Amino acid sequence: MKTVINLIWKLRIWKDRHGQDLIEYALMAGFVAVSAGAVMPGISVAISKIFSKVASSMTAAASTS
After folding, report:
1. Residue ranges in the chain modelled with pLDDT below 70
2. Which of 17, 33, 35, 46 has the most CB atoms around it within 10 Å of its CB?
3. Residue 43 in contact with residue 37, Cβ under 8 Å?
4. CA atoms within 13 A on the CB side of 43
C-alpha cells in the first residue's frame, strides 16, 4: 500500500508545472552570464566565483534533504 501511495505522489510531481518558469529564468540568466563572460574576459572570473557559490549551495541543499 505504501508503494502505491509513493507512486501516486511521483506521478503528481511529473504533472506539476509550478517550477517550470523558475527553471527557464535560471537557464536564461546562466546563458546571459556565460555570454557576458565570453564577450568580456575580465568579468569571467567574477562569474566563475558566482557559479561556484551557487553550485556549493545547491550541493549543500541536496545533501540535507
Report:
1. 1-2, 4-20, 65
2. 33
3. yes
4. 9
